[in-house]
Amino acid sequence: MYFRIQYFNMLNRRKFISGSALGSVGLLLGKEVHSASIQGAPDSPIVVSTWDVGLDANRAAWEVLSRGGIALDAVEQGVRITEDSLNCCVGLGGNPDRDGFVTLDACIMDAHGNCGSVAFLERIKHPISVARRVMEKTPHVMLVGIGAQQFALEEGFKLESGTLSEDAQRAYEQWLEKSNYRPPEKNIENKKQHGPFAPTRLANGDWNHDTIGMLALDQQRNLSGSCTTSGAGFKMRGRVGDSPLIGSGLYVDNEVGACTATGQGEEIIRIAGAHLVVEFMRSGLTPEQSCKKAIERFVKLRTNKLAELQVCFLAIDRAGNFGGYSLRPGFTYAVRSRHEEKIYKSTSWFDS
Ligand code: SD4
After folding, report:
1. What homologous superfamily does CATH list for 32-351?
2. pLDDT tens-digit profile of 171-214?
3. 225 CA from centroid of ligand 1 (Å)
4. Which of 54, 289, 307, 341 holds its CA 20 to 30 A away from the CA of 152?
């Protein structure tokens, strides 16, 4: 108990150092660092999404928003780009489970509390679009596994081959050498910084993540969100993370704001992360303050288990103000509005 209190105090001290070190706005590695929620544009639609891959996804979402389209279409079209990309781990190009199969999770939610979700879905290219069909064409919110696949096929989606991408095949073969639950200890520095959910190094040298969460506010000032992932690499077969769970990986309340999460799904589920952040915004906190408070809740709950974990939140309020916060450094998010197209680096609880 004593140790835990000491440890918690130590974390608080570290947090203080982190907060003061990043207390001002500046430019780091070409990415803006900030310590307060960023003001959105009252005269512009806006889309925000997790990680650097969000930049391309935002472009597709912006096509929809800038033409006066609805946020729901924007968040679906946006993340489809990421699901499509072979240079990305989000869709079928992602890392497989420990049995060698890629299984996908996704969910979508609109301004009216409508939501749809799929989990443990195999050999279907666009889980986000299947999630939308679940929302629009069934009396249910969530379909999983073979039932989700059957529904997708009935809806005209194509059954893909199930062959692993070159990057995933390489990563799987490396993983099989040790068959540890965690990804190969290939890049220790990267893992130290990001935890087990470190981005994967692709053959072309790029770093990439296995998840994208996107939030959009359209011209009618309606919010929607989407989240899609291949989940944790080399997970147990049947494992489902936070990303398809409404309230954990994604939540939208049109009167308040929206949030999406990324990082270790088990930890995000434990605190119903995205819903928690939205509730903090409801109480009057800014998006970034709300994300930070959810991380603080998590730290308190998991004080002695924080080593190597990463949990990140990204939120937007109904006025289009946005902000993010993560447990450890490394979380980035992309923003697109009439006034900016950029990647922000979020502030974090740990400074290193
Ligand atoms: C999951 N939250 O399946 C996802 C993983 C993730 O960046 O976000 N990775 O647990």
Report:
1. (Glycosyl)asparaginase (3.60.20.30)
2. 899 989 887 665 444 344 444 444 444 555 445 444 457 899 99
3. 16
4. 54
